[in-house]
Design a protein that fits this description.
alpha+beta; 100 residues; 5 strands; five-stranded antiparallel sheet; 2 helices; rod-shaped
Length: 100
């Protein structure tokens, strides 16, 4: 017990200087990363709601054009902007374009 008290008494006056590390960049990097994730998510959301023109040509050669959001477009079916679900047969041909 005496040994601990002497040791503490001897170390009480000693100050050990620890090197200071500058971590001011950590919040900046975290903020930039968060901004990039939000921007990417917003861009993806905008892309999903982009309206496309879908031309469908049936086996008789008749063509109809529909307005379809990208998120509602599948391989052989789609839902128009008006809410009509269209399913294509194997003989129908579909062409997708961006309007403009």
């Amino acid at each position: 017990m005496v040994w601990f008290s002497r040791r503490r008494a001897g170390m009480a006056g000693v100050q050990v200087e620890q090197p200071r590390e500058n971590h001011r960049w950590v919040p900046l990097v975290a903020g930039a990363l968060l901004a990039a994730v939000v921007a990417y998510g917003g861009y993806g959301l905008l892309q999903q709601h982009q309206v496309l023109e879908v031309s469908v040509t049936n086996q008789q050669g008749e063509t109809q054009v529909y307005q379809v959001k990208r998120k509602d477009l599948a391989e052989r079916a789609f839902v128009t902007v008006e809410g009509v679900k269209i399913t294509l047969s194997d003989l129908d041909r579909m062409v997708v374009r961006q309007p403009g």
